[in-house]
Amino acid sequence: MQINKFKDYNCLFIGVSFSDPNLRRLLDIAKNERGDDEIHHFCLKKRYDKKKVKKELEKLLSEDPRLLDEKQRANIELDDVVNDLIKLMQKFEENDAISFGVGLIWVDDYNEIPLILKNIRE
Q1: DSSP states of 33-90
Q2: What is the distance between the alpha carbons of residues 61 and 24, in angstroms, rounded to a whole number?
Q3: I need a surface site. Which of 21, 55, 76, 96 has the fewest CB within 10 A?
Q4: Please, is 118 exposed, middle or buried when counting C-beta atoms within 10 Å of its C-beta (0-12, 13-18, 19+)?
């Protein structure tokens, strides 16, 4: 039943990570049965928080001194690295979702979701 719904209808996922192998399998089967590479579903996802990513990166770099020596650490622009890392993570997630027919719509805050839903309804 789920495969048929994913195959025949457009779906909107909110905050789904797509880490569940069963969901991924069902979406992949539905995509193959449709026989195209079009995006038929969408997922609203919250953007990564730069402060949290920076904090995690700082923690990682301080815990393992083998990652960077003192000279490298002094020359690193952490904010630039964080921005590039977030872009890379988002691009990876977008490509992953596209592989089973889902496009991602990034939101900065969960409060944006009701307005997006209202616009879709209209």
Answers
A1: HHTS----EEEEEEPPPHHHHHHHHHHHHHH-TTS--HHHHHH--HHHHHHHHHHHHH
A2: 33
A3: 21
A4: exposed
- Residue 49: pLDDT band by 50, 70, 90 thresholds? very high
Residue for token digits 């195959």?
7
How far is 109 from 47, CA to CA, in rounded Å? 8
Closest among 74, 50, 48 to 61, alpha carbons compared: 74
Query: How many residues are present in the chain?
Result: 122
The amino acid present at 79, given as its one-letter code, is D
Reading the block at residue 72, the tokens are 């490298």
Share of the chain above pLDDT 70, in %: 92
Give the three-state DSSP class for 97. Answer: helix
**66-93 residue pLDDT tens:** 766 665 665 678 888 899 999 999 999 9
Q: Is 1 helix (H, G, I), strand (E, B) or coil?
A: coil
